[in-house]
Each structure stands twice: as structure tokens, then as C-alpha cells.
Amino acid sequence: MSENVARRGFLIGGLGGAALLAAGCTSNEPSAAPTSAAPAPTQAAGGNDEPGTKVTIGFSAPAADHGWIAAIAKNAEATAKQFSDVEFQPVEPTNDINQQISAVESLIAAKVNALVILPNDGQQLNQIALRATEAGIPVVNLDRIFPDKLAYRTWIGGDNYGMGVAAGHYIGTALKEKNVSNPVIVEIQGIATLPLTQDRSKGFADALKTYGFEVTAQQDAQFTVETGNEVATSLLQAHSKIDALWNHDDDQGVGVLAAISEAGRDEFIMVGGAGSANAMRAIKEDNTVLKATVTYSPTMASSAIKLARLIAQGKGMSDLVENQVPQSITLASETITKENVEQYLPLGFES
């Protein structure tokens, strides 16, 4: 996607194990006898983690000027280190489009076996991804998508629309349980002009509509702590009573929560976005208005490295019947609450 600051997604622990990537692909029930409709898998689940052909995976991402982006690079490197058959070759992270193009060109020249790219701008880096593919190097496109499907072998990323839907259902259900009518619902976006933000807002509005609710006020906060604080302060001053607030991004949510605390407001519930560790800790402690967050976790980078390794080694995903890694994987947006936060805390990123 064409944005300099972007977002998110939710993982999947190991790609060899789980209902992670596609619902219904695995089961805990004993396997039935193979039939012509469902041939027996040729490799036991988890077997893909065994050492295989040595491969070099190149990695390029934006500069770590944001908690989520920093976690992307950290997760990619940590996962690569888990495999003795992977040589991880990252290039210098940058927010400069031309520098990222040059960095990817260096990886193509080095003839890496696979590339994992989170582009600063999918549109502007589309041509260099195409060049890699034409050179026989499979590209795993992480999060911000290249517009040309010929530019990547597999895309993996989060569900922005699904984030909005998850947030909307949490708020709608909570307000219905309280018998609230005509609620004041406030939405703090990231960057309003970005497609990802528009997808999130549409999902939120669509879900709220099923409860007969709609957004009262909406303002963007640029994905920064400072602007989050300023926007929240303004919205709190404009509305003497609020019933619910959805903040799209947990990084900017640090500023949002600070503004709420400073104003001494606690009459509403708040839902965050992305799944940061500090948001999860606040949810666990249950001493602020933040009661839930919807995931768009940077652990997707870990999955991208695993996918690149499998593709470079000519393997498929052992939990799937198909012989090759899927062309596209959209991760689910999970809702984290006090009841399940312990399960997600290990996946949180520091804001």
C-alpha cells in the first residue's frame, strides 16, 4: 500500500502448526483414512521445521521509527535465527523510497534465494519487486501490498477491515448490554487519507450499523503519541459525555490514554488497535478505560520469514493438503480482553 507509516496484522505461531493461516485447515481429531478427494499428506505436521537446503533470505523494511515497525524487524531476525538452514541478510532499514530500492537491488545482485519486503510504498517499489521475481527470486510481500501480483510470490498481512469489524462488534455488544441508546461513539484514526485507515473505518461503521449505532465524531491522529494526545484532548473537550472510543493504533494510544487520564474522564469504554504490550498490560490491570484491543500484530514478519524459507526450499505448508505455499494469506484480527490477555501478552510489541 502507498503509505510511509503503516500497519499491522496478527500472527500465527508456527506455520507448520495451526488453524493459524486458514480456518479449518487443521484438526485435532484423528485423521480419517485417505480418500481420492483428500490425499494423505506426504509430510508429517511440523516436519517442515527440520533442517533442509541452506537458503539465504534477504529482508528489507522501513526504518524503526515506530513501535510496530521496530517489532517487524526484530521478529523477522529472531525467527530466521531459529533455523540452522537460513542465512538472514537484512539491508539497512530506511524511510527513503530510493534508498530502499537501492537496498533491494543489492539483494538481487547478491542472488539471495528469497526476499521478504515490507515496502515503504507498494506502488513505488513495485518495479523492483518485479525485477526480483523476473530474476528468479521469489518475493514474500509483507503487509503493504504491491499492486502487481506478478511482483510477489506470496503476500501476508493483516485485515484492516476486520480490525474495524472486531472493534465495532466489541463496542456494539458492550453498549447493548448496558441498554445504551443513541450512544456517543468517538473514533480516532491513524492517517485519514490512507486506504488502510479507510478500510478500518468502514469495517467499524459496518459493524456498528448492525446494532443500530453510528460514529458520532471521527478525527485522525497520524500514528504518533503526540498527535494522539492532542486529538484526544480536543475530542474530550468537544464531548462532555462519551460512551465508547475506538483508537486505531496502540502506539498513538499512549497519547490518547494520557489525555484521558489528564482530563479525569472514565465514563466510557475504549478499544485499541494493533496489540501492543503496553495496551495489553493496561487491559490486564483493568485500571483505565481501555478494555480491549484488536490485533494487527507485527508477528506477521515471523510468518513471512517462515514462508520465504519454505518457498525457497520448494516446500509447502505441512498442515495443508496443497503442495505449495498459498499465494495470499490474510491474518485474522483477534479481540484481546481481560479474559484472554494472558494468551496474547507474549505476542505484544513495545510502544
UniProtKB/TrEMBL annotation:
Compositionally biased region (Low complexity): 28-45
Pfam families the UniProt entry points to: Peripla_BP_4 (PF13407)
Gene3D superfamilies: 3.40.50.2300
Subcellular location field: Cell envelope
Keyword Signal belongs to the record: yes
Family, as annotated: Belongs to the bacterial solute-binding protein 2 family.
Protein name: ABC transporter substrate-binding protein
Annotated source species: Nonomuraea ferruginea
